[in-house]
Design goal:
Layout (H helix, E strand, L loop, with lengths): L9 E11 L4 E3 L3 E3 L2 E7 L2 E8 L2 E9 L2 E7 L4 H8 L2 E3 L2 E3 L9 E8 L5 E11 L16 E6 L9 E5 L7 H6 L16 E5 L13 E5 L13 E5 L4 E2 L2 E6 L5 E6 L7 E6 L15 E6 L3
Antiparallel strand pairs: 1-2, 1-3, 1-10, 4-7, 5-6, 7-12, 8-9, 10-11, 11-12, 11-13, 14-15, 15-19, 16-17, 16-20, 18-19, 20-21
Length: 295
């Protein structure tokens, strides 16, 4: 019989948690990470035994949060910011003391010596900030990230796993393992522009009207920036500064505050493909609408 020992590791993926309540659970689309080195998992499980009358009467297994240490060649700035709740503006990451690690699922694949694989999804957890050291050249410097994974509020589950030699395993399971967190359906629908105030082609906006844009679904607040929303004066194609951006609690509506419009003037609002929904889907193409201010 061929041996089936684990010997290999690849396919690191993470998926940010959208919701984790007793009523529902949902995730963003899994993001691949290159450079897998090690994964160490400690289930923190112990068995308690009740002895009576010089014998065992009962026993129970108690499990705490799963400890996980992940060794990786490198973690990108974007991935690190997503895990730790930091923001990136113009390619520069900022950190403040109120930033908190976010909930995510973590998955990977381990190769077996018989040519098969084992697949894993740890369903809800958080990673803490890694310690960092820098040395002169000649020594590889790779981060190790430490996290804790715990029971999902929705159904109490904390982990899914399978292996290619398991009964009832099919190739389709492995092929789809990282397209979404197992047991959930990935959101692949791009957000779209739905409506606005002023309305498209409207002529009732005043010089002090702010622009409110509604999308087909909640979008990421981090994509509500000047890079993705442009306001132009139609006749001159001159860019009009947007004083501030705001997003509604539900995430579907964005308000653009402008300094002052000119009377009897037509403006174009352009929404770029960098706008993404909470599953990470970007708009399939730029959207635009125009309106004209009153005299």
């Amino acid at each position: 019989m061929p041996k089936k020992i684990l010997k290999g590791l690849d396919m690191f993926h993470y998926a940010l948690v959208n919701t984790n309540t007793t009523a529902s659970v949902s995730y963003q689309t899994p993001v691949p990470m290159n450079g897998a080195i090690t994964v160490a998992v400690n289930p923190n499980s112990e068995v308690e035994i009740l002895d009576t009358d010089d014998g065992q009467y009962d026993s129970e297994e108690n499990s705490g949060p799963i400890d996980m240490d992940v060794g990786i060649a490198d973690i990108s700035q974007e991935d690190y910011a997503a895990w730790m709740g930091h923001t990136i503006t113009g390619g520069v990451m900022s950190e403040i003391n109120t930033d908190q690690p976010v909930e995510l699922a973590f998955g990977f694949r381990a190769k077996r010596t018989n040519g098969g694989h084992s697949y894993y999804w740890f369903l809800v957890g958080k990673f803490s900030k890694p310690s960092m050291s820098h040395q002169t050249k000649g020594t590889f410097q790779t981060p190790t990230l430490s996290g804790k994974f715990y029971d999902r509020m929705y159904d109490g589950k904390r982990k899914y796993s399978t292996r290619t030699d398991a009964t009832d395993y099919t190739a389709a399971i492995g092929a789809a393992w990282f397209s979404s967190v197992y047991g959930t359906t990935a959101d692949s629908t791009a957000p779209t522009y739905s409506s606005s105030i002023p309305s498209a082609s409207g002529t009732s906006a005043t010089q002090t009207t702010n622009i409110t844009i509604t999308f087909s679904e909640a979008i990421l607040s981090s994509t509500v920036t000047a890079a993705n929303f442009t306001l132009l004066q139609t006749s001159s194609s001159e860019t009009v500064p947007i004083a501030s951006f705001a997003i509604s609690t539900g995430g579907e509506t964005v308000t653009l505050t402008q300094s002052l419009f000119t009377a009897s003037t037509t403006y174009n609002v352009i929404m770029g493909t960098g706008i993404r929904d909470t599953a990470g889907n970007g708009m399939s193409g730029s959207a635009t609408f125009k309106f004209t201010t009153t005299a």
